[in-house]
Amino acid sequence: MDPRKFVLVAISVALLLGLARSFEYRAEDLASEEKLWDLYERWRSHHTVSRSLTEKQTRFNVFKENVKHIHKVNQKDKPYKLKLNIFADMTNHEFVKHFGGSKVSHYRMLHGPRSKDNHGCDGGMMEQAFQFIEQVGGLTTETNYPYEAKDESCNSAKLNAAAVQIDGYEMVPENDENALMKAAANQPIAIAIDAGGKDLQFYSEGVFTGDCGTELNHGVALVGYGSTLDGTKYWIVKNSWGTEWGEQGFIRMQRGVDAEEGICGIAMDACYPVKSTSTNKKKQGSLAAGKDEL
């Protein structure tokens, strides 16, 4: 089997398993205040969310408005759906404040020297992260040193177990989705997007075509591209908000929009590491050229 199709099939199975574990609700759960309270308690139990008595009413009010928004969007004929994920009792402002920021998600990137462009768990510039990796001689693996989303002193022993070295990085020409697609055919790309849209907060599945701006505030990884059976073009993006969000931690975002900067500014700021040795010249069997419906 073509390795690319194998990966796509594997992700499709993972998505089905993820959907089976997701939190579901029915329209009648929104019929009254009492039923909404019951829904909120079921949601808290499902996601093991603990709230104090003093904040419970406030959180319920936020949850109620979010449920109504999710239900309204899902009733429309959109190519994507939303769900009551773990962020459902957070306002969009709170969500962006806590989960926005141009995050480069590995410890070594977070614990590099602080500067105006590197802010630890508050995020940092992707280009500076690549510069730091080059300077210190490499990056360890996620398995060896998992990301935990908190600021603390780093584990030097794990940090210095370099598994990957780079010789620099290349910038993708900005506001050029064709150039971005060409780059993504060979390796994952570090990109920045505007993650402030409310629909992004609750994204569940499908090709995202929702409203979002171009105020870049969140770093993610572009890992490929494809098209649905009806011809809708999309990017495949890996996020850092956990596997309960989106399609097992991934999102498919519309590709080839009218705006040159791409949806949510996806084509505005993109770069990737380079390795000058011959082992880096071999193309990866990635998702990049996948054309199958997920």
UniProtKB/TrEMBL annotation:
Keyword tags: Disulfide bond, Glycoprotein, Hydrolase, Protease, Signal, Thiol protease
Ranges of residues in domain Cathepsin propeptide inhibitor: 40-95
Domain Peptidase C1A papain C-terminal: 100-274
PROSITE patterns: THIOL_PROTEASE_ASN (PS00640), THIOL_PROTEASE_HIS (PS00639)
CDD domains reported for this sequence: Peptidase_C1A (cd02248)
Pfam families according to UniProt: Inhibitor_I29, Peptidase_C1
Coiled-coil regions, chain positions: none
UniProt GO MF annotations: cysteine-type peptidase activity
Protein name as annotated: Vignain
Cross-referenced InterPro entries: Papain-like_cys_pep_sf, Pept_asp_AS, Pept_his_AS, Peptidase_C1A, Peptidase_C1A_C, Peptidase_C1A_papain-like, Prot_inhib_I29
Keyword Hydrolase: yes
Organism of provenance: Linum tenue
Family statement drawn from the similarity comment of this UniProt entry: Belongs to the peptidase C1 family.
GO BP terms, alphabetized: proteolysis
Signal peptide: 1-22
Source organism superkingdom: Eukaryota
